[in-house]
Design brief:
- The protein has no helices and eleven strands.
- It is an all-beta fold and about 120 residues long.
């Protein structure tokens, strides 16, 4: 079992930046691939970014490319999402997720989820 806790959300003006963190605890000795998803009111939860346990080439949604950067520090059991040039359409609850499988863009392939952190971008 892995427990995930997100932090770093908040209110920011359009064009601003935020850095989200996801701290993992529990069976962190297992190599998990991890991802960020988000869910806006009335919408489905959607993929944002994924990073493998080795920290290899990340995978991004088109909406995140060029603006967001996913990273992880395995020594700290923490994953990050640096979000720059934020837009009002980025407003959502952001969730981190972990999987012992490949993960990818499909949220149903992730076994473990955090409670989410709210990001609100004002225009």
């Amino acid at each position: 079992q892995v427990q995930l806790v997100e932090s770093g959300g908040g209110l920011v003006q359009a064009g601003g930046s935020l850095r989200l963190s996801c701290a993992a605890s529990g069976r962190t000795s297992t190599n998990y691939n991890m991802g960020w998803f988000r869910q806006a009111p009335g919408k489905e939860r959607e993929f944002v970014a994924r990073i493998t346990w080795r920290g290899g080439t990340p995978l991004y949604a088109d909406s995140a490319k060029g603006r967001f950067a996913i990273s992880r520090d395995n020594a700290k059991n923490t994953m990050y999402l640096q979000m720059n040039s934020l837009k009002s359409e980025d407003t959502a609850v952001y969730y981190c997720a972990a999987t012992q499988g490949g993960g990818g863009t499909n949220r149903y392939l992730y076994e473990y989820w955090g409670q989410g952190t709210q990001v609100t971008v004002s225009s």
